[in-house]
Amino acid sequence: MEEIRTRFAPSPTGPLHMGSVRTALFNYLFARNNGGKFYLRIEDTDKERSLPKWEKDILSSLQWLGLSWDEKTVRQSDRISLYEKQLQLLLEQKKAYHCFCTREELDAQHQSLVSNGEAPRYLGTCRALSQEEQQEKIQRGEKSVIRFIVEEKRLHFHDLIRGKVEFNTALMGDIVIAKDLQTPLYNFVVVVDDHDMDITHVVRGEDHIPNTPKQILIQEALGCKPVLYAHLPLILAEDRTKLSKRHGDNSVTRFRKEGYLPEAILNFLALLGWNPGTDREIFSLEELVKEFSLERIQKGGAMFNIQRLNWVNSSYIRQMSTPNLAKACFPHLREAGLVSDDIQNMEIVEKAVSLYKERLQKLSDISDLADFFFLKKLTYQKEILFWKEASQDETLYSLQKSFELLSSLPESSWNEEVLGDLMLKEAEKEKNRGYLLWPLRVALTGKKASAGPFEVASALGKELTLQRIQEAVDMLQQGGEGE
Ligand code: GLU
Predict the structure, then answer these.
(1) H-only helix segments in 121-251
(2) Which of the residues 85, 94, 143, 245 is marked catalytic?
(3) What is the pLDDT, as a whole number, of residue 342?
């Protein structure tokens, strides 16, 4: 069987976003599942909008995600002479021509077609110019573009996801394939490259379907071997419209910065439009390679649901060992100004992450959840120390009680279990456990919501625990607020 060869062909006109990663992933999975090749092609023919920083962003994001491509990266701006040769060929064979129509002439043509209820398209005015006439105009310095002659016919292709897709090319008019010989445009270069790179399958977003008939006609004109197409379903935002910049920053860099794991991102994106045919939801990249098939891709749009991504991410976080998770969380704590690069910090980070492992949706959550491990002094409104209807005096009494009890506990028995036994015994004497345990927990964390008081006290250690209770007591006695 022929080797399967796919490509991911991003334009470096912005940061790599999640939708594009899904396209890259599906190309990768399909190629690897079939023992084929997966290529990366940087489509930078748009000279104004393509920037080196975006190319860098694409490469580093793909590397971070672990989507490795075969051989060298192909860059279109390095291949201008290849395109020029093919453009010359089409011009010589009279399958393309120089068009000198001005913007105004084109607008007028479009308007008159639209007012007659016809599809706006180029009517081929300059097709009539002989090659000599074209050359003369060029020599006179008249501005032109290169148009490809679109034969009027019914055209169809078999999409591997959607089945038969039909077009009437009469509605297209002759299309511009280059601004000049050195400036070819998207639809043309894609065909030349796919042919030159022996691409067998083009897997891309369904927004490219209107380009497909143009590319098929250009393939036919250049005598290229046809490729097979699979157009992926749209990714929808929660408002059911196509996911785009309007819905916020969907760049890989953003998700990376917030502490989403590469495995989780790939796992989540794999299930946006593809299903494994079972209820299983967690797959490593290797497992995805094994399971993947184009047949299991749906036609309808797939919803980008951030809660789902959070859930997948938290599953991967829970699987990490505490030391690894601490290492992964460290940069986020540093970014939040909570730690600096020293070894002692690392021990506290391990304590903090083992306390919060089950609750992290993304790594950066650690900073808000566990800041109290790292802050010298906590800042909070004294009212949050009060359990339900409890008064200030009752709260003060409760904190003093905790202080007294905990002071008596030797350092050697300072662990969650002993702390729990000791405090619960006392708490049962009150009308409600909250009277004793709520102020304690808030005093230790400065938060209304956190891990439980015994877990926190055990992780903070005796000294800091007593210090925090004392600070809360002082605050209530002074009648003031935390700073
Ligand atoms: N450069 C195109 C894009 O970024 C991809 C074209 C293709 O896959 O054929 O959308």
Answers:
(1) 131-139, 186-196, 211-222
(2) 245
(3) 80
Helix (H, G, I), strand (E, B) or coil at 273: coil
Query: 155: part of which helix (H) or strand (E)?
Result: strand 154-159
- Residue 483: predicted pLDDT: 44
Chain mean position to CA 354: 27
Residues with CB under 6 A from ligand 1: 9-11, 43, 190, 202, 204, 208
Angle (deg, nearest 10), helices 392-407 and 462-478 = 160
The pick from 16, 73, 190, 244 for probing ligand 1's pocket by mutation, whose C-beta has the most ligand atoms within 8 angstroms, reads 190
Asked if residue 110 lies in contact with residue 120, where contact means CB atoms within 8 angstroms, the answer is yes
- Residue 211 CA: nearest ligand 1 atom is 9
**Per-residue pLDDT, 420:** 96
Does residue 344 surpass a pLDDT of 80? no
pLDDT digits (tens, 9 = 90+) for 215-242: 999 999 999 999 999 999 999 999 999 9
Structural class in CATH, domain 321-371: mainly alpha
Torsion angle in degrees (nearest 10) through CA of 79, 83, 85, 90 = 170
Domain 382-477: give its CATH code.
1.10.10.350
Report the Cα 90 to chain-centroid distance in Å: 40
Of 399, 432, 419, 417, the residue nearest 462 (C-alpha): 419
Please choose from 186, 218, 234 the residue to mutate so as to test ligand 1's pocket, defined by most ligand atoms within 8 A of CB: 186
Selected from 3.40.50.720, 3.40.50.300, 1.10.1160.10, 3.40.190.10, the CATH number assigned to the domain covering 245-316 reads 1.10.1160.10
pLDDT in tens, 388-412: 999 999 999 999 999 999 999 999 9
Q: Give the pLDDT confidence of 263-318 residue by residue, as tens digits.
A: 999 999 999 999 999 999 999 999 999 999 999 999 999 999 999 999 999 999 99
pLDDT of amino acid 479? 63
To the query of whether residue 72 is one of the catalytic residues in this protein, the response is: no
